[in-house]
Write a structure and sequence with these properties.
The complex is a heterodimer of chains A (337) and B (296).
Chain A lengths: L1 H8 L3 H5 L1 H14 L5 H40 L2 E2 L8 E2 L3 H7 L2 H32 L6 H13 L2 H11 L6 H8 L16 H26 L3 H9 L4 H12 L1 H16 L3 H6 L11 H11 L3 H34 L1
Antiparallel strand pairs in A: 1-2
Chain B lengths: L2 H4 L3 H14 L7 H24 L4 H6 L11 H7 L2 H34 L5 H11 L4 H15 L6 H25 L3 H9 L4 H12 L1 H17 L2 H6 L7 H11 L4 H35 L1
Helix pairs in contact in B: 3-15, 5-15, 6-9, 6-12, 7-9, 8-9, 9-12, 9-15, 12-15, 14-15
The chains are: A mainly alpha (337), B mainly alpha (296).
């Protein structure tokens, strides 16, 4: 849910991000620069500091306790061999990192994450764009249509996963029954039981779940394209395709790039859906980094390994986020400036 | 994003539609568009509707003719779920955790966003960057150490607070990022007028800012609520027995009764209703709130 908010606020940045510095100084003047003697000014300055502290402290305390502390703990854990009980004594240096990075299961999980990152964007971008362009017109039932498209996104991954798990049951699930009734042979081990098919099946379900978000965001971005542009293009005799390709899609650029960023971060963290559908199986064919670290942490009690895997996952996410920012999002920032 | 832009545009739509009607190509439905829309709706809703209807069938019906309507309609699956006390226990847990999470996110979020939006002070942008950086720490990365800290250091294992507090903490960065432009957009004259009337900045916060930022708070509140309602990983690690939330209940029920497809469908349907209803009821507010943030 939080995702769509981020993107829809993104278009605001041109308007707001030019404002902060200028607006701030203007705002501050009546309060801070009011004439009235040194002591009064100092008093009001102190008072302002206290007010700021009062307003910001609770949020910062929450972040420190539940975000920063655990992340530091992960780094700490990663340097020890530890089963989760007692003090951290068995210092192993970087050995946990070595075993994580040479573990076939972890490397396989990382590859799966990367495949999901790439395929999510490669599938959902053209499909979402096509649907959004097609639906971006005044038509009967438009409001209802947009709501319906968003439904899978609002469902919990667990709920969606459980329903799909039932639909995909080998032999007696609805998909297999339909296939059999038209004379097709469903996979013998089931869609989720065949190591060659399982990741693709998960990918298909993820597409079903998250395509709506792309469509809704792209539609919202399309609302920002001024109608005059279409009219002018029409007067110039541009065809529908030319208008979409030359005007709409380029203007949708910032929305698409921000969506891509969120999609990437989401794919790197994937856990719920896979846990429900396959628990990472068969034979780790659908395992992700999050599945790996939860397995190590809670099932095998290898908290040192889980800590190292957490740090590696974080670093990978960070590097990809920074690269994305540098290579792709920077264009938007430049456009603003 | 959708409805709110249509409403203000209402006066202009009629003439522009007429104009476009003559131009023809760009707007209005044509059979291809409706066909695609129909396919999209089927693909989107198909599994959901199948699940809802499947709850009204028996397992024998599902096995004999997987792709047909309930015949006869059977209510025992649904009544079985709603008379199951653990379903209501899970629902209660989900509600409490989601309400606590939402309350913390909205209160602390708007408090933090206020000085970041409307005070001028040194280090403000740095402070804001702390929250932006918080976006880069997904809960998944920290979930194992979080589990250790909550159970061993904070004594919050298997409690509502143990789930709600970290969820709120991880939702705060996004909340502040959404709310700041929103609060910034409120006209400066309001603040000046309040100051002339002798209202302090804190008075301004309570009496003017809070009432005016309702839509923004609803937006972040709904996002936090739905996020908490759907959360699985942290509750999975922290909660056992009677403390479980609905997603855990759904997953348990599905694995314990995996051959009782109809029962699983009924349980799943009832578990998804609250999130769907809440979202649909609040959709306009979310949309308006986001629209406001965009304009800001």
């Amino acid at each position: 849910m939080a995702d769509d908010a981020a993107v829809t606020t993104a278009p605001a940045s041109p308007a707001t991000s030019t404002g902060p510095a200028a607006g701030a100084t203007r705002q501050g003047r009546p309060a801070a620069g009011r004439p009235g003697g040194g002591r009064r000014a100092a008093d009001s300055k102190l008072r302002k500091r206290l007010e700021i502290a009062f307003f910001v402290a609770p949020a910062l305390a929450m972040l420190a306790l539940f975000v920063v502390w655990p992340v530091i703990t992960a780094v700490q854990m990663s340097a020890f061999r530890w089963n989760g009980r007692g003090p951290l004594v068995d210092f192993v240096g970087l050995a946990n990192y070595v075993s994580v990075l040479t573990d076939d299961v972890f490397v396989g999980s990382l590859v799966n994450n990367l495949v999901i990152v790439v395929l999510s964007i490669a599938i959902q971008l053209p499909l979402g764009l096509a649907i959004a362009l097609l639906l971006n017109r005044k038509m009967w039932g438009q409001g209802a249509l947009r709501t319906i498209i968003f439904v899978p996104y609002v469902l919990a991954e667990v709920v969606a996963g459980v329903v799909w798990f039932q639909l995909l049951q080998p032999y007696y699930g609805v998909l297999d029954t339909i296939l059999q009734s038209v004379g097709l042979e469903p996979p013998a081990q089931g869609w989720l039981g065949d190591p060659d098919l399982a990741l693709w099946t998960v990918m298909a379900i993820l597409t079903w779940k998250y395509l709506g978000l792309a469509v809704i965001l792209f539609l919202a971005g399309l609302q920002g394209v001024p109608e005059e542009l279409y009219e002018a293009a029409q007067l110039d005799g541009a065809s529908w395709w030319q208008v979409q390709r030359r005007i709409t899609v380029p203007l949708l650029g910032p929305t698409i790039r921000t969506w891509g960023f969120l999609s990437m971060i989401g794919s790197l963290q994937l856990f719920d859906m896979v846990w429900i559908l396959t628990k990472g199986g068969p034979a780790n064919a659908t395992s992700t980094m999050a599945i790996f670290l939860v397995n190590e942490g809670t099932r095998s009690n290898n908290f040192g390994i889980a800590g190292a895997a957490s740090v590696v996952l974080f670093l990978i996410a960070l590097v990809m986020a920074v690269l994305y920012q540098r290579l792709i999002l920077r264009r938007d920032a430049k456009g603003v400036a | 994003m959708t409805t709110s832009t249509q409403t203000p545009a209402a006066p202009t739509t009629a003439p522009s539609r007429r104009r476009r009607g003559s131009a023809g190509r760009f707007q209005g439905g044509n059979p291809v568009v409706y066909a695609v829309a129909f396919l999209v709706v089927c693909a989107t809703l198909g599994p959901v509707v199948y699940g809802v209807l499947g709850g009204f069938r028996s397992n024998a019906q599902l096995a004999d003719a997987p792709a047909s309507l309930p015949d006869p309609w059977i209510f025992s699956n649904y009544t079985g779920v709603v008379t199951d006390p653990s379903f209501w226990q899970y629902t209660l847990n989900s509600v409490v955790v989601a309400v606590v999470t939402t309350a913390i996110v909205v209160v602390f979020g708007v408090m933090a966003a206020y000085p970041l939006a409307r005070y001028a002070f040194k280090g403000r942008e740095v402070l804001f960057m702390v929250f932006v950086a918080g976006l880069l720490f997904p809960a998944t990365v920290a979930v194992v150490p979080l589990f250790i800290l909550l159970t061993q250091n904070f004594g919050l294992g298997n409690t509502w607070w143990g789930v709600a507090l970290p969820q709120a903490a991880f939702a705060l960065p996004m909340t502040v990022v959404i709310l700041r432009p929103f609060l910034k957009a409120l006209p400066k004259e309001l603040e000046e007028a309040a100051q002339l009337d002798g209202t302090s900045r804190i008075g301004f916060f309570w009496r003017i800012l809070i009432p005016l930022s309702g839509p923004g708070m609803v937006t972040v509140g709904v996002l936090a609520f739905v996020g908490s309602w759907n959360a699985y990983l942290l509750p999975l690690l922290l909660l056992q027995g009677d403390m479980k939330t609905l997603p855990l209940g759904v997953a348990d029920f599905s694995s314990e009764h995996s051959s009782d497809t109809a029962g699983v469908f009924a349980f799943t349907t009832l578990a998804m209703i609250p999130a769907l209803v809440f979202f649909l009821a609040m959709q306009k507010r979310i949309v308006n709130g986001l629209q406001g943030a965009v304009k800001g």
